[in-house]
Design brief:
about 250 residues; alpha/beta; Rossmann fold; 8-stranded mixed beta sheet; 10 strands; about 30% helix
Length: about 250
């Protein structure tokens, strides 16, 4: 093989490897109250826009994103409102990834996204007892789950003492015995729960987040029950904005 052919083969191989990583690159909203650093997601082809403690969040704002990661390290000013809009977003096919401390006491998220059929984890009512675990992945309940692809090195320190919500699918526990990863499947997307704080989960923390983003963009299991049907107030918002948002999601994901 001459040098030109060898160079071309190298370029083609490198291009294929890059495509495999970035094929599902997404526009990601990062809803946070003093959230951890997830800038490393750019290495996976994701474009991240931070929405720090958003006030009067709208479905139209979220329609700019394929998926949303949510975290907190302080109290959201409008926890219930944000949670309601996130549930509307998920109903329309947007991916949602919930992480610590949205499952934790005074920092917890509220609204419909935290109810059965959406959040895969319940809220730990305590605002303490979450520190000092240094856990890695322990028992795996869904072997071969895409959520765990290339995730072999985690060191998780912050863990809520949450239960798995009724109807949710538990993927794995931490070595501490606390639940690590779970999801709820909706009509055309999923809500993924990661019981860890972004930027503080060790070497493969961003790989796990990237997997969760891509996983959240599709349904994976039994469909959501009637427990997650929007109330009348949310239905009005969906009627006004739903079609436009849905068209935007599908256009970006096609």
């Amino acid at each position: 093989m001459n040098n030109i052919k060898r160079t071309l083969l190298t370029l083609i191989t490198a291009s294929a490897a890059f495509s495999a990583t970035s094929l599902n690159a997404t526009s990601v909203g990062y809803i946070n109250a003093s959230g951890g650093d997830i800038s490393g997601l750019s290495a996976f082809g994701h474009t991240v826009t931070s929405l720090s403690n958003p006030i009067d969040l709208t479905l139209a704002q979220l329609s700019a994103f394929d998926a949303v990661i949510v975290t907190s390290n302080s109290t959201f000013s409008q926890a219930a409102h944000i949670g309601n809009i996130l549930a509307d977003f998920a109903d329309l096919g947007g991916g949602v990834v919930l992480t610590e401390f949205v499952f934790q006491g005074g920092w917890a998220l509220g609204g419909r996204i935290m109810t059965e059929g959406y959040s895969p984890f319940t809220v730990d009512p305590l605002s303490g007892g979450y520190l000092g675990f240094n856990s890695s992945i322990g028992t795996v309940f869904e072997s071969g789950s895409p959520l765990l692809t290339d995730v072999t090195s985690l060191n998780n320190n912050y863990e809520a003492n949450s239960n798995v919500s009724t109807g949710a699918t538990l993927v794995a526990d931490w070595t501490s015995g606390r639940h690590a990863i779970a999801y709820n499947s909706l009509t055309s997307s999923s809500v993924v729960g990661i019981n860890g704080f972004p930027g503080s989960m060790g070497t493969h923390g961003n790989q796990l987040l990237s997997n969760a983003i891509e996983f959240s963009l599709s349904a994976h299991s039994a469909q959501r029950s009637s427990a997650g049907v929007p109330d009348s107030g949310s239905t009005l918002a969906l009627t006004a904005l739903g079609l436009l948002a849905l068209i935007g999601f599908r256009a970006r994901r096609s």
